[in-house]
Amino acid sequence: MKSSEHPRFDWGALFDRLEAFRSSLESGLAQDAGRRGRELRRRAVELARKPETARAAGDTLEALVFALGGERYAIPVERIVEIQPLRQLTTLPGSPPWVLGIVHMGGRIIPIFDLLPILRRAEKGLSERDKVVVVRRGTEEFGLLATEIVGLRTLERAKPGEAAAVAPAATSRHVSFVTGAGVSVLDPDSLFSEETLAPAEE
């Protein structure tokens, strides 16, 4: 397992490198985003139009649940762009442990991240069955590594005192809340913030 000490990382330089890859790959590599991704976006639009009475207290939400490293995580459905198999990953030498590399998706270059080092969990390595969950933060898109896509679920916050017992990541500042079943609902704004991805040296 890699050290939990995060080195200084130049986030601006990473995106400069992504632009360089975009220029070199833009000729004839665009691919269909896939039926599953389109269906997910359609569901997200439908859910966004529904009354949010169940979410008024911030205790429930619609989210995509996925598995990684033996644990389950979720992203609010309105932040999901698409889901794809992890294919043709290009590594970036010198990147921090949470940056797995980049992939080309439908004319876009997407940086792929591993949640486990960010959440201080043991890393699992890659397999041919891994998936990428593409998440939107503002105008940017990021890919999260997933070992399994569980599906869309309506999630409810665990009762007081239960969270830490059912989910090891419950105390992370990147987790909005945890369900009674142990699903950690992630906060994309915190997860993909510059403070998280490019921490300063102490």
Can you tell me about this structure?
The protein is α+β, with helices and mostly antiparallel strands. The chain has a single domain, classed as OB fold (Dihydrolipoamide Acetyltransferase, E2P), CATH 2.40.50. The chain is 23% helix and 32% strand. It is built from six helices and ten strands. It has a five-stranded mixed β-sheet with strand order 8-1-2-10-9. A hairpin with a 2-residue loop joins strand 1 and strand 2. The chain starts with 10 loop residues before the first helix and ends in a 5-residue tail after the last helix.
In short, what is this structure?
The chain is an alpha+beta fold and 202 residues long. It has helices at residues 11-25, 35-49, 115-118, 163-166, 188-191, 194-197, and strands spanning 60-68, 71-76, 80-85, 99-105, 108-113, 131-137, 140-146, 148-156, 175-178, 183-186.
Q: What global shape is seen?
A: globular
- Report the radius of gyration as a whole number of Å: 17 Å
| Strand arrangement across the biggest beta sheet | 8-1-2-10-9
Stretches with pLDDT under 50, minimum 5 residues: 1-7, 24-33, 50-57
How many helical stretches? 6
